[in-house]
């Protein structure tokens, strides 16, 4: 077997720092066994480096390889880690869409409200629609209808009471 001074120097450097490299990696990856794997991978990468390459501080370079591999391992573990019981938790979450039954019920309620609004006197309906659906203030509705604010309040209240009664009767 041929003697390779550069390769032997790398091996000696690795062996001299191996325990410290594992100690360095372990807190990053959270497990001594994973740290051993990281250091082994670092050695493989370090040993494959071109021997003609100009590495000024080989020990620092080896530590940097361990650090980068440790961080990569931590990221990989974090993305691969599944939440225990995640599927069950997901199944228990309420759906963001309405069920077919809820959709039908909502459509029926809207139809009942629409019928109730159509049955109202025009001024009452308009006051209700402007204030409750259009977002106008009572003062703005009063100015538009040329009536008092208290009358608009009464009209909106009457329309709301009429719609509620219609919903109770229809459903």
* Rg result: 37 Å
Overall pLDDT score: 84
Q: Into which percent range does the helicity of residues fall?
A: over 70%
Distance between the termini: 93 Å
| Distinct helical segment count | 8
The beta-strand count equals 0
Order of helices and strands: HHHHHHHH
Q: Pairing-aware structural class of the strands and helices?
A: mainly alpha
* Low-pLDDT regions: none
Strand content: under 5%
Shape: rod-shaped
Biggest sheet overview: none
Folded structure, characterized:
This protein has 171 residues and is an all-alpha fold. The protein contains eight helices and no strands. Helix 1 runs antiparallel to helix 2 (32-48), helix 1 packs parallel to helix 3 (58-80) and helix 6 (122-133) packs across helix 8. The mean pLDDT is 84.
Task: Considering the chains and any ligands shown, give keywords for the structure.
171 residues, rod-shaped
At a glance:
The protein is mainly α.
Give the helix/strand layout.
Blueprint: H1 5-29, H2 32-48, H3 58-80, H4 86-92, H5 100-119, H6 122-133, H7 138-145, H8 149-170
């Amino acid at each position: 077997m041929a003697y390779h001074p550069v390769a032997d120097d790398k091996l000696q450097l690795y062996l001299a720092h191996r325990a410290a490299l594992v100690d360095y990696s372990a807190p990053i990856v959270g497990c001594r066994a994973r740290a051993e794997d990281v250091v082994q991978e670092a050695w493989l990468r370090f040993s494959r480096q071109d021997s003609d390459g100009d590495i000024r501080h080989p020990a620092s370079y080896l530590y940097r390889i361990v650090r980068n591999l440790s961080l990569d391992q931590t990221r990989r573990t974090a993305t691969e880690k599944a939440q225990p019981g995640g599927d069950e938790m997901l199944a228990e979450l309420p759906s963001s869409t309405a069920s077919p039954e809820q959709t039908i019920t909502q459509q029926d309620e809207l139809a009942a409200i629409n019928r109730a609004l159509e049955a109202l006197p025009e001024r009452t309906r308009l006051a209700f629609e402007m204030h409750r659906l259009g977002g106008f203030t009572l003062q703005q509705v009063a100015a538009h209808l040329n009536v008092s604010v208290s009358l608009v309040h009464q009209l909106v209240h009457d329309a709301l009471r009429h719609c509620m009664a219609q919903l109770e009767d229809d459903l």
